[in-house]
Amino acid sequence: MSYLSGKTFSRSLMIALFSLMLGLTTLPVRGQQRIYSPISIKSDGPISDRLTDQDIPTGGGGFAKDYTIQLQRGDQVAIDLTSDEFDSVVLLLGADGATVAENDDGPDGSTNSLLFSRITETGRYIIRVRAFGETGGGNFRLNVTRLRPVN
Fold first, then answer.
1. Model confidence pLDDT, tens digit, residues 81-99
2. For the chain, which end, N or C, has fewer CB atoms within 10 Å of the first or last residue's CB respectively?
3. DSSP assignment string, 44-60
4. Chain-centre distance for alpha carbon 62
């Protein structure tokens, strides 16, 4: 009788362990709910959006929102970022994450941002919208314009 109960116990243990292994492999990963995916900008024109604490943490207590745009060598762009709710900062980053250009306050003395840049390499660029300082957020308007030479 003890042999039989030992065999039954081993079989039950094996079934439980096997079930546990199957359960562990099918559990969803809860820590990685969002994957970085910047918003693609297809053409010139204004974008109205909102910066919140659900956006990309900057590491300094603030948050940022990224947009991607395809630019060509020789393009000249004006990036205008305005908000009545926070002190805006706009950055133009290369595909490798290196800062190409940055602006905090525009030439009009306001806390809005206006950045001009001439593109030296064709590729995908990131436009990063963030608030100055550790906190801040709210509604904003982003406008990207490709400047054309006047003849």
1. 999 998 899 999 998 889 9
2. C
3. SEEEEEEE-TTSEE-SS
4. 13
From the number of C-beta atoms within 10 Å of its C-beta (0-12, 13-18, 19+), residue 127 rates as: buried
- Start-to-end CA distance of the chain, whole Å, equals 101
Task: Decide if 117 contacts 77 (C-beta within 8 A).
Answer: yes
pTM summary value: 0.73
pLDDT in tens, 60-74: 778 899 999 999 999
Locate all alpha helices (DSSP H) within the chain, ordered by sequence: 2-26
CA distance 71 to 147: 12
Mind listing the pLDDT tens digit for each residue in 32-54? 555 777 888 876 678 999 999 88
- Give the pair of three-digit tokens for residue 82: 């305005």
CA-CA distance, 76 to 40, in Å (whole number)? 19
- For residue 72, what are its two tokens? 């060509």
